[in-house]
Amino acid sequence: MTVVREVVGVLRRYVRELTGEAAYDRYCARHRRRHPQAPVPTRREYQRMRELRSEGASPGRCC
Predict the structure, then answer these.
(1) Buried b / exposed e across 48-63, counting CB within 10 Å, b at 16+?
(2) What span, in angstroms and rounded, lies between the C-alpha atoms of 41 and 28?
(3) Which CA distances in Å does 21 have to 30, 40, 61?
(4) How far apart are CA 26 and CA 47, in angstroms?
(5) For residues 22 and 13, what is the distance between their CA atoms, to the nearest angstrom?
(6) Cβ–Cβ under 8 Å, residues 45 and 33
(7) Which of 7, 18, 33, 37 fits a 20 to 30 Å CA distance from 61?
(8) Each residue's pLDDT tens digit, 6-60
(9) pTM score, whole prediction
């Protein structure tokens, strides 16, 4: 049974990395450390910030 739990745990961590859930959790932890008085953005706000950052940092495209 221990092996099954380990496999499930590895799969869960893998899926969290694929979906970006782990990135949000890391961001929240870092935000709380660096800005303890500021409210933590919601998951939706975080996703929007990432989208805006990636759109602004990309080189010009034709389409």
Answers:
(1) eeeeeeeeeeeeeeee
(2) 8
(3) 14, 15, 29
(4) 13
(5) 8
(6) no
(7) 18
(8) 999 999 999 989 988 899 999 999 999 999 999 999 999 999 998 888 877 655 5
(9) 0.67
Measured between alpha carbons, how far is 19 from 17 in angstroms, rounded to an integer? 6
3-state SS, 4-59, equals HHHHHHHHHHHHHHHHCHHHHHHHHHHHHHHCCCCCCCCHHHHHHHHHHHHHHHCC
In the chain, what is the straight-line distance between the N-terminal and C-terminal CA atoms, in Å? 52
Polymer length in residues for the chain = 63
Token pair, residue 7, equals 């496999």
